[in-house]
Design goal:
Layout lengths: L1 H26 L1 H16 L3 E3 L3 E4 L5 E9 L6 E11 L1 H5 L5 E7 L2 E4 L20 E11 L2 E12 L6 E9 L2 E9 L8 E9 L5 E9 L5 E9 L1 H6 L11 E9 L3 E11 L2 E10 L5 E9 L3 H12 L4 E12 L2 E13 L2 E11 L3 E10 L4 E9 L2 H7 L17 E9 L6 E11 L12 E11 L4 E14 L1 H11 L6 E2 L2 E10 L5 E2 L1 E4 L2 E4 L6 E11 L2 E10 L4 E10 L2 H13 L17 E9 L4 E9 L2 E5 L2 E3 L4 E10 L2 H7 L20 E9 L3 E11 L2 E10 L5 E14 L2 H13 L2 E15 L2 E15 L4 E12 L2 E10 L8 E12 H10 L6 E15 L3 H7 L1 E14 L3 H13 L4 H13 L4 E14 L2 E11 L2 E10 L4 E10 L10 E8 L2 E6 L2 H10 L7
Parallel strand pairs: 5-7, 6-7, 17-18, 26-27, 26-28, 43-44
Antiparallel strand pairs: 1-3, 2-3, 3-4, 4-5, 4-6, 7-8, 8-9, 9-10, 10-11, 11-12, 12-13, 13-14, 14-15, 15-16, 16-17, 18-19, 19-20, 20-21, 21-22, 22-23, 23-24, 24-25, 25-26, 28-29, 30-31, 32-33, 33-34, 34-35, 35-36, 36-37, 36-38, 37-39, 38-39, 39-40, 40-41, 41-42, 42-43, 44-45, 45-46, 46-47, ...
Helix pairs in contact: 13-14
C-alpha cells in the first residue's frame, strides 16, 4: 500500500514537472501559433489561419481552443468560424507533442458557390475525417441561393472515397428543420450518389426527400418527392389553398449552374391536382417558369403566394385549369398566360368560361394588395344567368332584371382591392339586348361609358354614366328596372346617369331624348339645342368652382366664364383626379410641394368653335401664369402669348421637388439668386406643345430661343435651339443625376444648337463663347446622351469634342466616352485644375495643346476613375517647369570640371542635388504621350527641350492607389563641352506631393573623366 502511494505521488509529481516545463510553452499562442495552425491545417485538409487567442485546458481533458478561425479554399469557397476546439491525446501531450482526437467548429460560416467548382469532388471529405469525428455547432452554410443557419451537425465518413454523412438540425428561411445528407464515392470519376431529406422539426407529417447523383460538372439529377399531412397543412394555415387533405409531390429534377428543371410533375394537393413542368432559370437572372394543367385549384388564394414570390424572383406561367374559383366567380375552364413582377401579377392573356354561355377575357395586372388593372371583354348569351353566377363577388348583380337578353362589354377594369371590392370600369364600349331571351328579346343597343362600383355589406354604391346613341327598350326590361328602383331598401344606390340621342320604346317611332344631368340640360342636336349653364357651383373639398355660359349645337361659345379657387391645390387635385382620370391614384406630379398652396384659376372664352378666343390666369402661391390663346376646338389646337413669373428661382425649384440639384452654399450655387421669368409665343396641337421666341431667366441663367415637345408617337421628343447669355450649370453630382433621369425616361432630345456667352458653375466661369449641341437617342440596346462641343473658350484655349453617356444595357453598365482637342490652353490654369484632382503638375508658364480619347464604365465618377481607359497626348511651348534648374545643374558640372582638386566634385554633388530638386527651368517646346487603362496612367514618352538642356520622363500614375512612379532623365547644357551626362531623377510618392530623388553617380563619373589629374602639367 505504501509502495502504491509512493508510485502515485511520483506520477503526480512527474505530471506537475512536465506541466511546469511544457505547459507555458503549449499555451503560448504566439510561440506555438504556427505549429498549431499547421496541425489544424493538416486536420482540415485546407490552410487554417488563427487570428484570435489560443489557450490550452488540461483539466478535465486536454483541449486546445482557438478563436477567429479562417479556413482557405482554392475555388471560391470560404469558411470562417468563431472558435475551434481540438480534443488532444494526453500521452502525446505529456511528451510535448500535439495530437488531436476530435474537432469541433463553433459558428462556422461556409460559403460554397453554385455550381460547385469540380462538382462532387468539391465536397469530397478531407482525409482527416477518416479517423476524426467532427462536430459543427451553430453554423451557417450558403450554397448558391440555398441558406442554412443555426446548423448543429455531426459529420462522419469512412475515408476519402467512402460515404460522407451529415445529420442534425438547422434553420431554412427561418424555419427549424431536421437535415440528413449522404454522399457516396465523391472522389471518383463517376457521378456520386446523393440522398438528402428536410423535415420541419415542429411539423409532423411534412418531409421533402431527394435521391439522385452529383457529377464532377455539378449536375445534380434525381427524383424529388414530398409529403404533407392534412394536419400539418392545417397547422400551417394553408387549408384555404391546399383544400381537402394531404399534399404529395413527385417530380424528376435536374439542376446545374444554368437552371433547375422539374419534369413529370405529379402533385396532389387535397382535391387539387397539378401536372406539368417547372423550370427555374438561374442565368442571367433568377426566373421561374410554369407550364401546368390542373383542376379544382383556388387561384384566388394562391395569388398571395405568387405575390410573395414576385417580390424577389420573376415568374412566368402558362395555365390550363378546370373547375376553379377566382375572386368568388366560378369558371368551368380557365386558360391564362401570366408573369409576375415587383408590381404584382401581369396577366398577358386570360380566357374563362362562365355560366349562361358566357365568356370573359382579361389582360392586365393584379397588384400585391389585390388591386386589378387591365383590359377586359365580357360576352354572354343570357346576361341574367351570367351575372347571377357572379353573385358571390357582387351580390347586387345576383337578381338582375329579366328581359335584357344578351350583352357584350369591353373596356378597362380597375379595382382597388380589399373586402368588399371597389371596382371601376372605364372606357366601356358594349351592347345590350339581342340574342335569345325567355322574356321578349330586346333589340340590340350600343353604348359607351364608365361605371364605379363600391360594394358594401348591405348596399352597393354605384356611380355610372352610359351614353347611348339609340336606346331601344322593351316593356319587360322597363318593368324590371322600375321594380328594382322602387324597392324601399334598395341594394344599389348612387347616381346613375343615362344619356341618349334618341330613345325608342318597343317598336314605336324615335323620340328625342331630354335627360337632365345635374344643373345641365342636354337637348338632342336635331332640335337645334346645346348646353346652357346659367349658373352652376360645385364644392370640391374646400375649393369652389363657379361657371356659366352657353355652348350652342354648332360648337360656338357665348360668354363662358369659369373660376376655381381654394386654399390648397393639392387637396383639390386629390378631389378632382377621380373625376378627370377615373382613378383614386394621384399622379406623382400632383404630390409636389408646389401644390400645397392657395390657388385661383379663371378662364373666359367666347367665339366660334374654330376661333375661340380665351383668356386664362392662374395664381399658385407666388407663381403667376397668364395666357391668351386662340383655340380651334375642331382640331384641338391653340396658340397665343404666354407669361410666367415667380419671385424666387431657388424656392420654385425646391417646391418642384428639385432640392437635390441645388447648390450647397445656402442653396445659391445653382441656379443662382434671382427670379423666374418667361415670355413666349406658345402653341399646342394634338401631339405637340411648344414655345417660340421665348425670353426667360432662371436665377442667374438667362436664355432665349424656341422649344417644342412632341407627345406622340412615343418617345417624347424635345427639340429646338437656345441662345444663352449666362448658362449656369449645377454641381457635377446633380448634373449626373439629371443625366441619369433623362436616360431612364422615354425621351428623345434634339438640341443641335446651344450657344452661351458664358458658362458658369458655382462661382467659377468654366467657358466663354461656347457653342454645342445636346442629343438623347433611345437606341435599340440602350439610350445615349451626347454633348457635342463645336467650340468653346476654356482655360485660355479653344475646345472642341464630344462626350457620350450610354445607359445600362441588359448585361452592361453605363459607359462614358470622351474625345476632344484643346488648343492654346494656359499651362498654369491646367495645373490648377489638376491640383483640385490631387495631381501636382509643375507648370509655371506656357501653353499646351491636348488631345484625348477616353472611355469608362460605371455610374459614378469614382467608378469611372477606376475603369478609365484611353489615351492623352499633348505638346507645349514656352513651358516653365518648377522643381528643377538645368542652368544651375550645367553650371555646377562646368565648375567641377574646371577645378583641379577633389573638393570640386564634392561641391558639384551638393549643387547638383539642389538643382535637380528645386528651382525653375523654361523649355522652348515639349510633348508627351500617355496610355490610360483601368485608372492607371502610363506615360509612354515625355520630353522637354530648351536652351538650358532637355528633360525626358516615363513611368506610371496610379489614380486608384494615389501613387506616382516616374523615371526622369535631365541633360543640362555645360559650357565648353559638347556633351553632358544624363542625370537620372526618380520621382515618386503621392501625386499631390511627389518627391524627387536624383542619382549623382553618372555625373560624378563624367566629372572624373573630364577633370585633369592634380599632378598633370
Amino acid at each position: 500500500m505504501t509502495r502504491g502511494r509512493i508510485v502515485a505521488a511520483l506520477v503526480v509529481l512527474g505530471v506537475i514537472v512536465i506541466g511546469a516545463l511544457f505547459g507555458p510553452l503549449l499555451v503560448s499562442g504566439n510561440y506555438h501559433r504556427a505549429a498549431i495552425e499547421r496541425l489544424a491545417s493538416r486536420l482540415a485538409g485546407r490552410r487554417v489561419t488563427i487570428s484570435g487567442p489560443i489557450e490550452l485546458a488540461l483539466i478535465p481533458d486536454p483541449q486546445l481552443r482557438a478563436s477567429k478561425i479562417t479556413i482557405g479554399a482554392p475555388n471560391g469557397e470560404r469558411t470562417t468560424a468563431a472558435s475551434l476546439k481540438l480534443d488532444l491525446a494526453p500521452g502525446a501531450l505529456l511528451l510535448g507533442r500535439l495530437r488531436a482526437t476530435k474537432l469541433s467548429l463553433r459558428g462556422p460560416d461556409v460559403v460554397l458557390p453554385w455550381p460547385l467548382p469540380g462538382g462532387s469532388a468539391a465536397v469530397a471529405p478531407p482525409p482527416w475525417l477518416a479517423s476524426l469525428h467532427a462536430r459543427i455547432v451553430d453554423g451557417r452554410f450558403r450554397i448558391g441561393a440555398l441558406r442554412l443557419s443555426h446548423a448543429d451537425l455531426s459529420v462522419f465518413t469512412g475515408g476519402p472515397h467512402a460515404v460522407l454523412a451529415a445529420s442534425g438540425t438547422a434553420r431554412l428561411a427561418g424555419v427549424p428543420v431536421s437535415v440528413t445528407f449522404e454522399l457516396d464515392n465523391a472522389g471518383g470519376d463517376h457521378p456520386a450518389p446523393v440522398t438528402a431529406s428536410l423535415a420541419p422539426t415542429g411539423a409532423k407529417g411534412v418531409r421533402l426527400s431527394f435521391r439522385g447523383t452529383l457529377d464532377r460538372a455539378s449536375l445534380l439529377a434525381g427524383r424529388l418527392s414530398g409529403t404533407a399531412s392534412a394536419a400539418a397543412i392545417a397547422d400551417a394555415g394553408l387549408s384555404h389553398v391546399l383544400v381537402g387533405g394531404a399534399a404529395e409531390l413527385r417530380a424528376d429534377i435536374a439542376a446545374d449552374g444554368q437552371a433547375i428543371v422539374l419534369r413529370g410533375i405529379d402533385a396532389s394537393l387535397g382535391h387539387t391536382g397539378l401536372a406539368g413542368r417547372v423550370a427555374i432559370d438561374l442565368v442571367p437572372g433568377a426566373m421561374i417558369r410554369f407550364d401546368l394543367t390542373g383542376h379544382d385549384l383556388a387561384p384566388g388564394a394562391a395569388l398571395g403566394l405568387l405575390h410573395g414570390v414576385a417580390g424577389t424572383v420573376p415568374l412566368a406561367a402558362s395555365l390550363d385549369l378546370d373547375r376553379i374559383a377566382l375572386g368568388g366567380i366560378g369558371f368551368a375552364t380557365l386558360k391564362a398566360d401570366l408573369v409576375t413582377k415587383r408590381g404584382g401579377v401581369h396577366i398577358q392573356s386570360l380566357t374563362g368560361e362562365l355560366p349562361g354561355r358566357g365568356a370573359v377575357t382579361f389582360a392586365g395586372r393584379i397588384g400585391t394588395a389585390g388591386t386589378l388593372d387591365g383590359r377586359f371583354t365580357l360576352r354572354s348569351a343570357d346576361l341574367r344567368a351570367t351575372l347571377g353566377a357572379m353573385g358571390k363577388a357582387l351580390p347586387v348583380l345576383a337578381n338582375w332584371p329579366h328581359g335584357f337578353g344578351a350583352a357584350t362589354l369591353r373596356g378597362r377594369i380597375d379595382s382597388a382591392g380589399g373586402t368588399p371590392p371597389d371596382i371601376r370600369l372605364g372606357g366601356l364600349h358594349g351592347t345590350i339586348g339581342g340574342g335569345a331571351s325567355k322574356h321578349d328579346p330586346m333589340p340590340e343597343s350600343a353604348f359607351t361609358g364608365a361605371i364605379h362600383v363600391m360594394a358594401g355589406r348591405k348596399t352597393t354604391r354605384v356611380a355610372a354614366r352610359l351614353d347611348f346613341g339609340r336606346l331601344i327598350l322593351t316593356r319587360p326590361a322597363l318593368s324590371g328596372l322600375f321594380a328594382a328602383a322602387a324597392k324601399p331598401d334598395p341594394a344599389l344606390i348612387g347616381p346613375i346617369v343615362l344619356t341618349a340621342r334618341s330613345v325608342r320604346l318597343d317598336s314605336g317611332g324615335a323620340k328625342p331624348a331630354i335627360l337632365p344631368i345635374g344643373d345641365r340640360l342636354l337637348i338632342d342636336a336635331r332640335l337645334g339645342g346645346g348646353i346652357a349653364v346659367r349658373l352652376a357651383s360645385l364644392r370640391i373639398g374646400h375649393a369652389m368652382l363657379i361657371l356659366h355660359g352657353i355652348r350652342a349645337a354648332d360648337g360656338s361659345v357665348t360668354a363662358a366664364r369659369a373660376m376655381l379657387t381654394g386654399p390648397d391645390a393639392a387637396t383639390t387635385l386629390r378631389g378632382i383626379m377621380p373625376l378627370l382620370a377615373g382613378t383614386r391614384t394621384v399622379p406623382k406630379w400632383a404630390r409636389l410641394p408646389v401644390f400645397n398652396q392657395r390657388f385661383a384659376a379663371a378662364i373666359a372664352a367666347a367665339g366660334p368653335a374654330k376661333a375661340l378666343h380665351a383668356g386664362m390666369t392662374m395664381h399658385l402661391g407666388a407663381v403667376r401664369l397668364a395666357a391668351t390663346p386662340v383655340a380651334d376646338l375642331t382640331t384641338g389646337s391653340a396658340a397665343g402669348p404666354l407669361s410666367l413669373r415667380a419671385p424666387s428661382a431657388i424656392a420654385l425649384i425646391e417646391q418642384l421637388g428639385g432640392k437635390t440639384i441645388l447648390g450647397g452654399r445656402n442653396g445659391l450655387d445653382w441656379p443662382g439668386a434671382g427670379s423666374v421669368s418667361l415670355r413666349a409665343s406658345a402653341f399646342a396641337t394634338g401631339d405637340m406643345l411648344g414655345i417660340a421666341n421665348f425670353v426667360g431667366s432662371l436665377g442667374a441663367l438667362t436664355a432665349s430661343g424656341r422649344l417644342t415637345l412632341t407627345t406622340g408617337p412615343a418617345p417624347l421628343t424635345l427639340a429646338g435651339a437656345v441662345a444663352a447669355d449666362t448658362l449656369v450649370l449645377p454641381a457635377p453630382r446633380a448634373l449626373l443625376a439629371l443625366a441619369d433621369t433623362a436616360l431612364a425616361a422615354k425621351l428623345k432630345i434634339a438640341l443641335p444648337r446651344i450657344t452661351a456667352s458664358r458658362v458658369d458653375q458655382s462661382e467659377a466661369t468654366l467657358a466663354r463663347n461656347a457653342a454645342f449641341g445636346l442629343s438623347l437617342e433611345q437606341g435599340k440596346l440602350a439610350p445615349s446622351l451626347t454633348l457635342a462641343v463645336d467650340h468653346a473658350s476654356v482655360v485660355g484655349g479653344r475646345l472642341d469634342g464630344s462626350a457620350e453617356l450610354t445607359g445600362a444595357a441588359a448585361k452592361s453598365p453605363p459607359t462614358l466616352t470622351v474625345a476632344g482637342h484643346l488648343k492654346g490652353a494656359g499651362a498654369v490654369r491646367i495645373a490648377a485644375i489638376a491640383a483640385e484632382a490631387g495631381i501636382a503638375l509643375p507648370f509655371t508658364s506656357g501653353s499646351l495643346d491636348l488631345a484625348t480619347s477616353l472611355t469608362a464604365s460605371g455610374g459614378t465618377p469614382s467608378v469611372w476613375r477606376g475603369d478609365l481607359s484611353g489615351s492623352l497626348t499633348g505638346s507645349g511651348s514656352k513651358l516653365g517647369m518648377a522643381g528643377i534648374d538645368l542652368v544651375k545643374a550645367g553650371s555646377a558640372l562646368g565648375e567641377a570640371v574646371a577645378a583641379e582638386h577633389r573638393i570640386g566634385r564634392v561641391a558639384a554633388a551638393t549643387l547638383l542635388r539642389a538643382a535637380l530638386g528645386s528651382g525653375q527651368t523654361e523649355f522652348a517646346k515639349g510633348n508627351f504621350s500617355t496610355t490610360i487603362a483601368k485608372g492607371r496612367i502610363a506615360i509612354d514618352t515625355a520630353g522637354l527641350t530648351g536652351e538650358s538642356g532637355r528633360l525626358a520622363a516615363s513611368g506610371t500614375l496610379d489614380l486608384i492607389h494615389r501613387r506616382i512612379s516616374l523615371d526622369a532623365t535631365a541633360r543640362p547644357v555645360v559650357a565648353g563641352h559638347k556633351s553632358a551626362p544624363d542625370l537620372p531623377v526618380a520621382i515618386g510618392g503621392d501625386p499631390a506631393h511627389p518627391s524627387a530623388r536624383p542619382e549623382l553617380g553618372p555625373a560624378m563619373g563624367w566629372i572624373g573623366k573630364h577633370t585633369p589629374h592634380p599632378s598633370a602639367p
